[in-house]
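JOB MANIFEST
job_type = single_chain_structure
chain_count = 1
residues = 95
[input]
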Amino acid sequence: MECKAIGNHIKINGNIKSISHFQEILQQVETLKNNYKELEIHILDSISLTSSVIGYFSKLVHADKLRLKVLVSNSQLYELLEDLDLLETLQVQRI
């Protein structure tokens, strides 16, 4: 997995499947969240998210009051987020 930040956009390539992937995403977001009120996260290849990533994204929205827009390219991941009732909370869109 590769995670790269450009402005308030974070692009994630590859499957998100380990704690090290979560830590990499957390590190990228933490460096940006104090400078931006809204972050756009592009998840380009992953078919799922770990529970730690889902929990962290929810915390960012509810506790930190950060606006997130999560764009996903995989229909299986979109359906997972829909099943978890997170489409509105994370402003999930297909790309």
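[summary]
Residues 19-33 form the longest helix (15 residues).
Strands lie at 2-6, 9-13, 38-43, 67-72, 93-94.
exit_status = 0
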